User: Fold these one by one.
Assistant:
Number 1:
Amino acid sequence: MRERDSLSPEEREQRSKQIAERLLTDPLVKRHQTFFIYCSYRSEVATNDLIKGFLQAEKIVAVPLCLPEQAGMQAVTITDATRDLCCGYRSIPEPIPSIARKQTLTPSQIDVAIIPGVVFDRSGHRLGYGGGYYDRFLGGLAPQAVRIGLAFSCQLVHLLPALPHDIPMDVVITEEELLRWPRLEKVLNSSVQ
């Protein structure tokens, strides 16, 4: 995380734009309708351009609402990233309470989940922030979703130790490359049937 934090705001912005463009032009975006995407926080890959791009493409966009008392999350749909978000759990942007009560999305409706991480490896494994929120959400509630990790190239390592409860990514996108793994084809083929 130190390397990510050491990037200047200008570098993070430029690299985030490259990552957003790479994802927005990928065939996965055209193929799917419902996207669950994290709201960027601190030095993470910025997701503002992605959220706007999905909304402009008339996609359904849901963002996480953290439920710390349950160690879980809900997916809440938004239509405007500026108007519909406020400072939430640990100061991470989240849906405003009035939206969260009315616009919860069933996790089984999610086609693509876009996930942050501290580090990703070349096998698709991810090291998160230690709470297990995304692993529980993706593994138990939204196993059908295509899992895309966003990272700067400095967050990509050769190999991470993985535990059985760690949910691997199907795709990892950096400003320099796009990595895909075999589960992606299985998920895409099952969604066609």
Number 2:
Amino acid sequence: MADEMELLKEWIKTSKNIVFFGGAGVSTESNIPDFRSTDGLYNQEYAYPPETILSHSFYKKKPEEFFRFYRNKMLFPNAQPNAAHKALARLEQQGKLKAVITQNIDGLHQKAGSREVLELHGSVLRNYCEHCGRFYSLEDLMEKKELVPKCSCGGIIKPDVVLYEESLNQKTLEQSVRYISQADMLIVGGTSLTVYPAAGLIDYYRGNKLVLINMAATVRDGIADLIIKRKIGEALSEAVE
């Protein structure tokens, strides 16, 4: 492990165009549960499976059930950036990290100070009325007393998150492809790389410094140039010091 960490430090030191691609595991150290671990949302009991509740069709058919789950299980307003978020923000400040591409919707990268953050699945911090388009913050949404939040115009306020059955934002995808294809180092962390189309983005990397940081094995370990099986916060904070 020591040799792997020394190599990671050396690559970061000599790279000038680093991109980070991250998933739910980046935020678990901020006490936000992921989906697929033993304590994750997929392993808890609900009237409907989480992937059903978080689908566009379910949101339309059963908005009350959707928002009950969403408010209880998807919102963590008191969560704070952890060591991974802070290390990435420092890398950006040093001019080495060009972008963070995240599957997370919690806004913690920005809270830590990262500026160029591409949110593939949207953000709980942004909410819009489906009727008139008025913007509502997370605080606005949480202040709404009714289970299904309504705008002053009467429309439902929908979180700006990508639900199952919905397409990812094309502009965000194109920006992600551009950053990854131009990177001289790609660090992938906290993701099992099983959720597509997001996971397929790493195929656009053309360099020879692909680093996977994850506690468990991923389906793409075979193409990695360096694998580090440690908590992402520990590994990144040590590497960026």
Number 3:
Amino acid sequence: MIEISGLCKYYKEVKAVDHMDLNVKPGEIFGLLGPNGAGKTTTIRILITLARPTAGRVCINGKEVSRKKAQVKKEIGIVSQTENLDVEMTARENMELHGRLFKIPAQERCAQIEELLAFVDLTERADTAVGRFSGGMKRRLMIARALMHKPRILFLDEPTVGLDPQVRRKIWDLIRRLNGQGITVLLTTHYIEEAELLCHRVGIMNKGKLIALGTPEELKKKVGKVVVEVPNHNETEYHVFEERGEALQYAAAMKHDVVIRESNLEDVFVELTGRKVGD
């Protein structure tokens, strides 16, 4: 569904994306993980036709992005990191505008609006000005709006940033339901839990390069199954072990309290880069 080959994007001396190769399968939830400046958002901007690559080839459902922008835009839905709704308009009016921009016939447009507002649980607030919505409601409306023209692929750039944990989980459920209907999803995130719970596969980016690729379980196996956290003055040391027995044996030799836990994608990232995802 997404094919990236030799993708580069340079801003003068800065290599925002550096020789990236990646394929995303139909019906997959794929996550791009990495710190600020890793190249995630630049990659998304190229995929959704907002930026031109310096070099390389990018295809969406067999259509080369740089040559068939109009056709590509019909294939994709976009939920940006920043809110871009018209807050003086109602939820229904925001949806109506989007439908008209995509030249959806009136009867189909009205049916789509009602169906999608129900899908994101906003029917009762359809005629409320968006400026009165909570952050989670705005995010759900942005997802509904992105689905108006029935895209094959949904791009989500930090879909739950700034939302509280309860609202974040509602957005996760919504993404799963969309994927269950056959929509391919590519999302960027800083949240380790989000990537582990949602994504079929994850790509880790750092300094413009894709440095690791696989399922969350495959990536965690690369560093080890169990982590022992050892406090050391104002810092914490992390020691990774293949088996829990090895971790327990190591912890028993410590003179102070330690934390023993399963490894996660944050550990993978730290092992590969020496940095945390949120850095």
